[in-house]
Amino acid sequence: MALQKHHKWMIGGASSFIILILVVNSVFLYILYGQVQLIYTQLSKDISSLQTDTQSKVNELSQSLLKTNKDLSETAKTLNVKIGTIGEDIDLLKTSTSSDFSGIIEDVVKSVITIKTDTGQGTGFIITSSGYIVTNYHVVEGASSIEALTSEQKTIPIKLIGYNPTLDIALLYSSGNYRALILENSDDIQIGEKVIAIGNPLGLQFSVSEGIVSGVDRDGPSGLNVYIQTDAALNPGNSGGPLINKMGKAIGINNFKLGSGESLGFALESNAIKETVNAISMKATNQTLI
Fold first, then answer.
1. Which tens digits make up the pLDDT trace of 223-278?
2. Ramachandran category for residue 144: left, alpha or beta (phi over 0 → left; psi -120 to 50 → alpha)
3. Residue 22: CA atoms inside 13 Å, Cβ hemisphere, count?
4. How far apart, in whole angstroms, are the C-alpha atoms of residue 248 and residue 275?
5. Which residues does the annotation mark as catalytic?
6. What structural domains and CATH numbers belong to the chain?
7. Rounded Cα distance, 157 and 178, in Å
């Protein structure tokens, strides 16, 4: 059956309408796709810009932190401050703001003793709480009897454990429980830092003299560069006593002075004391002490 004319018009119109809709949808989708691409491109640019800005700020912050750290280090060096524990910083501050060592002498002197022999006298100081004592060997050399007097005027018996005549060090022992002096790392000693020497010059027990470190790694009678030069007054009787820093730690043992000049005293540095004492103890008791 052949289609009527008006039927052909209806079919043609419907087909045209469908084609039109498809074309419009295609155009809309194309436009929408273009918009999405533009948005994506813009977002990519924004993200890239944000990353660049963030990285720039991170770099600036890093540079600022490095500069701050450098400034703090330079300031610490200028002020001659060593960063340590809070307790050490507080103790150092207390001493630095004082005009003298009175804040630490009361504690330090408890670890210092007067050594008396049948041939003379000198000074020593306690290096372990169990009663080991260090002094100069020449203080006890040739003695047949040795005793010690504490800062509390208590007499205690002393036993000679061993000695090193080259470095003029003697290790003594007295049984009991004592307050010991801490031996500082002598590698940290700085020229110009304040120190005190405690001893018994000319029989004046537990006398204190103040000075500074005038030099380090000086040559001495042993032929080794292990001596601290100080202008703190040293006299007969000071031998074997400790050279103390602002933290109340022993940086050396007062050893000798040059009689031809003023304020030329020398102390064996603490690291050499440690090494020598441990060697003496190992030989005598098969153990190290400090």
1. 999 999 999 988 877 889 999 999 999 999 999 888 766 678 999 999 999 999 99
2. alpha
3. 6
4. 21
5. 138, 168, 239
6. 94-173 (2.40.10.10), 186-285 (2.40.10.10)
7. 14
